[in-house]
Amino acid sequence: xxxxxxxxxxxxxxxxxxxxxxxxxxxxxxxxxxxxxxxxxxxxxxxxxxxxxxxxxxxxxxxxxxxxxxxxxxxxxxxxxxxxxxxxxxxxxxxxxxxxxxxxxxxxxxxxxxxxxxxxxxxxxxxxxxxxxxxxxxxxxxxxxxxxxxxxxxxxxxxxxxxxxxxxxxxxx
Length: 173
Description:
The protein is an alpha+beta fold. The chain has 2 domains: 1-34; 35-161, Immunoglobulin-like (Sandwich), CATH 2.60.40. 16% of the residues lie in helices and 29% in strands. It has 2 helices and 10 strands. It has helices spanning 2-19, 26-34; strands at residues 37-45, 54-60, 75-78, 88-92, 105-107, 109-115, 127-132, 145-147, 152-153, 158-161. The strands form 3 sheets. Strands 1, 4, 9 and 10 form a 4-stranded mixed sheet that branches. Strands 3-2-6-7 form a 4-stranded antiparallel sheet, with no helix packed on it.
């Protein structure tokens, strides 16, 4: 009888230690969410304006069709500041989770924006778009950023030409 109890306890311990494998623990869910992201490079051409205080990579869920579209509910990602006066900036949302991290999904507008305001603001009039993500060089319409679950979308490259900035979304300078 004593041997039977030992076998039962061993059987339960074996199932406990090998059967769970973290299951749906919060840690495994968090690890999966961290895999969704995007990466690329941002090139800057021309002379940086002296008055620039902030340069950020910003991703919007829906197109910017009016000044009202520029709101926190439409924002899908805001990077930490991009170093001023840099010529080439390689980025990854996995490494820079930003002020607002990104999730899997489809996004309509990916841009590099600059502000002269020393205080970080969400006022559209404080921001100027200096670069936009386009697909295959088609500058007629911003490219969609598609991030499948558990993957990183690479080569989301943006060219910022201070001598020839892109068209400004509604409500801007």
